[in-house]
Write a structure and sequence with these properties.
Distance between the termini: 49 Å
Helix content: 55-70%
Structural class: alpha/beta
Number of strands: 10
Largest sheet: 6 strands, mixed
Strand order of the largest sheet: 6-7-8-3-9-10
Length: 603
């Protein structure tokens, strides 16, 4: 299992491994390939636009040398010819801008979909060491930066390259002597572009990482806004966020300074060279060695070449910055899920006939490799059996659920369903047999109907309402302003804890699973609702295999078997009466955790 994850020491330390400047952008070419005809159209328009621009210089030369000659009757045709060139330039520029912008928008939409789709394949192990805000920053900020490059900067860069090469060729054609003087200056211009370009790329990558840290900080704080306010932690959160923002600003200023120096040096060298060359050309015109039209067209091409060089120096910085963003996105796309479907998965029956088994399982979480979550853990659960799992905090109860759903694979041992090692099956097929009700229910910012239907997306409205009734959720959902079409706030902030739990239970009831995983599904309910939901769960559990992480006495009393965990392994198991007679760990937990008096504990 790899330890290299998004947002690790590379991002936090500000150290970036040196890589070729913009070669990382080639990794995105596969997203452009499906739109090759649009790309070809944009390329044709680009060539026509650049050619039209260069032809303006020749039109200027003819106009100055022949159009203004005494008694010239061809003045109008020269202006008409110039207008025709300008019209061609205008329409070609429209086609280039439209097609390139379309490609940019389409490609970035595809990249966002590809990245998001890939993220959904990654396992919880990835998110153990990766902040969600970091991933969101890559999905939004980095893709926006690349969108600017693909939809604009690349096109402008290609146009300026064509203009530079074409203008240089016309400079040589117009005046080899003056062109030679210009070419002597080009190496002096390229050197600072290369040096500062590398600096800008490194700073851009560091800048994007710092922006990601700002996003992660904001995401984490806003997700816990009630806790922040409850503990009067707002000022500390503001200072921490401000510190991250200021650090990002400081890095951005350093990057901007490097780009500004790059632009200033290039402009100084380019226009200094033009001034010197024009002085030489003007001297030739005065001495009759060059016509005014030739000098005029040379000046035009010199401006084109200089403008192209100046633009390229700025675009180079954008490309360097986009290369850093591309590198971060490609890093996400190359992140392989630790849990993957085998090439030839073993099929799982749709019915649970042989039960569940954990066979000598040893497991360490990736972020806590020194501590075993499960240690030589073995457990057999028969079909239709209800097993309550109890134990102190950190005993490994939740880990049992995590491994059964194959969010992780054990380092040693096996987890079997129907006698089949689930590491050899498609994870989706194993999870399709299960229904989960977590202790902290997940509620989406959607309608009540869709929140329950999350358990079975193809369920009818009638099925959803039936599930809500079974979970004692129908009455309060019907009383909402828009009934089942009412929108819940983000993470269900408009609902009470008990209401959230009943929606989550309805979701599991609708799924109608073979295996029920209940993380004390009634823990957040009041006494009246608990009785209603407990009855619904008992009806649902009949004939199903159920694992319950238990925190209440009622849950363990109704279980067929109680398994006591401590430090990742099974300490003992049996019924409530049997375990109370042992007067061991379970008896102590019962007296403390289940919060009942001694008389209720007596067998």
């Amino acid at each position: 299992m790899t330890d290299t994850r998004v947002g690790t020491s590379e991002a936090t330390s500000g150290e970036v491994t040196e890589k070729p400047s913009v070669t990382r952008l080639w990794d995105l070419v596969r997203f452009v390939k499906p739109y090759k005809w649009q790309f070809v159209g944009a390329a044709i328009a680009l060539v026509i636009a650049s050619s039209s621009l260069l032809l303006i210089g020749q039109a200027v030369r003819l106009l100055l040398d022949h159009g203004f000659s005494a008694g010239s009757g061809n003045l109008s045709q020269y202006f008409l010819g110039l207008m025709a060139v300008v019209v061609g330039l205008a329409f070609a520029s429209f086609a280039r801008y439209y097609l390139v912008s379309w490609i940019g928008e389409r490609v970035i939409a595809d990249i966002r979909q590809a990245v998001f789709s890939h993220i959904l394949k990654l396992n919880p192990a990835f998110f153990e060491v990766t902040r969600t805000g970091e991933v969101l920053s890559r999905l939004t900020t980095d893709t926006t930066l690349i969108q600017t490059v693909i939809g604009s900067s690349v096109s402008v860069a290609l146009r300026n390259i064509l203009s530079f090469v074409g203008g240089l060729a016309f400079l040589v054609y117009t005046s080899p002597k003056l062109a030679g003087m210009v070419l002597l200056v080009v190496p002096c211009i390229l050197i600072p572009i290369i040096i500062f370009g590398r600096r800008v790329r490194k700073l851009s990558t560091i800048n994007q990482d710092s922006i990601a840290r700002v996003s992660a900080r904001a995401d984490e704080t806003l997700r816990s806004i009630q806790t922040s306010q409850a503990y009067n932690h707002e000022d500390i959160d503001r200072k921490a966020f401000a510190s991250d923002v200021e650090e990002s600003f400081r890095i951005a200023v350093t990057r901007i300074r490097a780009r500004a120096w790059l632009t200033a040096i290039v402009i100084l060298l380019i226009f200094g060279a033009i001034d010197f060359v024009l002085w030489s050309g003007a001297t030739d015109v005065v001495h009759g060695n060059m016509s005014p039209g030739t000098l005029g067209s040379f000046v035009f091409y010199a401006i084109v070449v200089a403008g192209s060089m100046g633009s390229l120096s700025e675009i180079w910085g954008e490309l360097q910055r986009a290369a850093g963003a591309s590198e971060r996105l490609i890093e996400l796309l190359k992140e392989e899920p630790v849990i993957a479907c085998p090439e030839n998965p073993v099929p799982l029956p749709s019915k649970l006939t042989e039960g569940l088994e954990f066979s000598s399982v040893n497991f360490h979480y990736p972020s806590r490799k020194e501590m075993a979550a499960l240690n030589n853990f073995s457990l057999n659960v028969k079909p239709g059996e209800t097993v309550a799992i109890v134990g102190p905090s950190g005993a490994g109860k939740t880990t049992v659920f995590q491994l059964l759903q194959r969010f992780y694979d054990p380092q040693e041992g096996k987890v079997l369903i129907n006698g089949v090692d689930i590491s050899k099956t498609d994870p989706a097929s194993a999870r399709s047999l299960m229904g989960l009700v977590p202790q902290e229910p997940v509620i989406f910012a959607d309608t009540a109907m869709n929140n329950i239907r999350y358990g079975r997306p193809d369920a009818s409205d009638a099925d959803v309402m039936a599930a809500a009734k079974a979970a004692a959720a129908f009455d309060f959902l019907s009383e909402l302003p828009n009934g089942f079409d009412s929108q819940f706030g983000e993470r269900g902030m408009t609902l009470s804890g008990g209401q959230k739990q009943r929606v989550a239970i309805a979701r599991a009831i609708l799924r109608d699973p073979e295996i029920l995983l209940l993380d004390e599904a009634t823990s957040a309910l009041d006494a009246e609702s608990e009785n209603l939901v407990q009855t619904a769960l008992e009806n649902l559990m009949k004939g199903r295999t159920t694992l319950v992480i238990a925190h209440r006495l009622a849950t363990v009393l109704n279980a067929d078997r109680i398994v006591v965990l401590d430090k990742g392994h099974v300490v003992t198991q049996g019924t409530h009466e049997q375990l109370m007679k042992e007067d061991g760990l379970y008896a102590r937990l019962a007296k403390l955790q289940f919060n009942v008096n001694r008389e209720a504990m007596k067998v």
